């Protein structure tokens, strides 16, 4: 690679090489065309050495050609910023004023100059002053106004705490709870998919069991017209909720007798092995449409006022979502290519034609707002149950790393996403060809120009009703693997980690929400230390807590990290019983992730060794149930070990990690996985598996009772 091109890529944060997370740390070099693709997306030209050199100069001069940055993200105790002006203004008085976005307080800021730099550009001499603000400012956001020579300049000051919010309960004792896939909950009353009433009822189950936290899959809205696209990690908008979780029979407009004609159908949905989204979701929408008609004609003023207040509170983002869904519904089966293939005047949400379209389709737009209104109301009721039951953490929500490229979020603000590219995972030992998720990825330069507002909105929306937030693929605060849509592979794009992590910290404190980061995979050196210093909890799973990586002996619990949310596995991993019998290996062979029978056979042999290592670790810990001790090797035909789930849950729960999350799949001895990464639903029923037991029977289930006792003995 040409030196100039490499230098330009380095400046712009486009990696030209990286190492994978394998034990041999394989190095990958990025081809020139991929690097040039991203350079162009960031507004520069690297096509030739001369162009790259010119772009380097342009990049170096960019800060010197504007008075203020779009945003300054600073920490309390170090409130610094810089301003640039012509050298003739060097000694002019600096007047800097802030207005708090939290309370509207106006403050004239007292500043001192820490240092000065000068530079000449195109025969003009500029001076950059590095300033320190002497005032003490609370955590939050401030609109800045700089007055210099009667000219006014605007910026945003984001003041971050030294650390993310810390719930005092985490300092007092080790907590535990459950990790749930909400859609997977069975009950005697739901419509074949878990809903917000199931969640509310599970809060009571958790509280009675002694738990304090309920981990949830992302709850964000998915594709309205294609409900079979069910991955909770590929949403239409991370700002709003999935209507599939609405309990139809709890909607205020519901009337007794509405469902008499479909009771047999609902029973069939409940008894089905997997969730039938293609039937359940449209049926729910049909009922919600009839309820909306009742709502419009109702004389219930309080309900109408609540709706109006909701629409006002959610404002422009709700309106854009509803307009997008209305337009998408009209075009999704006749216009191919998503919203980018719509009529040109409808591709920009701020085009006057979009406003006219919304007015012409007001009834349908309002219906989509009504869906969110009811979803938020029912989720709020579940959150109220958390407070009533006194859970110390409550809901532990999951923020997906990206959003669908053909989404309301991308349509609402397309410039903030890297065009014609999507997030994925690089090649590694498990996926030699990498993974192409196709999720929209933030353009780091546009994100900063927008004062990180898109990130702030997403953080704030997902911290709603939330005591802790899991940031999926938290490494994306620093770097994200992004792939051009027309290429099989991409490269890492770097983000301003200090700014990003401080924005997270601000929202964490303003919303009193603990933050944890999912960091399984290719973790940059030193990254976990940065998270720890910011009080962002790590995630830990049994399968990763092993000596010498994934293939060594299982670590004893006392070696697990303290500031962590810990579990046996995740939704992407085989549950314990499935792992024990190696059914996951067969699944991966069937899906061609394992390329041939020889590799499959080797995996089975490795699994035999791993089972022996797990048994050894459990023996050393002495945590087998007293009435169900280990009675055999269990390695060759003895079946599933009696007491295995209790032993493993006790093993992991005994660790010093502040939070342990028990998975119902392991407690109920499920032998099928929720998600098989790297394949679509044609090869595996991802995101469709239900739990084998109704919620109403859970509290008296022997395995549930025994596992809870096992966890509480060590927790």
Distance between the termini: 55 Å
Helix content: 25-40%
Tell me, rounded to a whole number, the average pLDDT.
95
- Measured on Cα atoms, how large is the radius of gyration? 27 Å
Our estimate of the beta-strand percent is 15-25%
Indicate the low-confidence ranges by residue numbers: none
Shape: globular
- Based on helices, strands and strand pairing, what is the structural class? alpha/beta
Strand order within the widest sheet? 11-12-15-19-22-23-24-25
How would you characterize this protein structure?
By secondary structure, this protein is of the alpha/beta class. 37% of the residues lie in helices and 19% in strands. It contains 22 helices and 25 strands. The strands form 6 sheets. The protein has an 8-stranded parallel beta barrel, surrounded by 5 helices. Strand 7 and strand 8 form a beta hairpin. The radius of gyration is 27 Å and the shape is globular. The termini are far apart. The model has no long low-confidence stretch (mean pLDDT 95).
Write out key terms for the chains shown.
single chain; 715 residues; alpha/beta; eight-stranded parallel barrel; five-stranded mixed β-sheet; 22 helices
Please summarize what this structure is:
This protein is an alpha/beta fold. It is built from 22 helices and 25 strands.
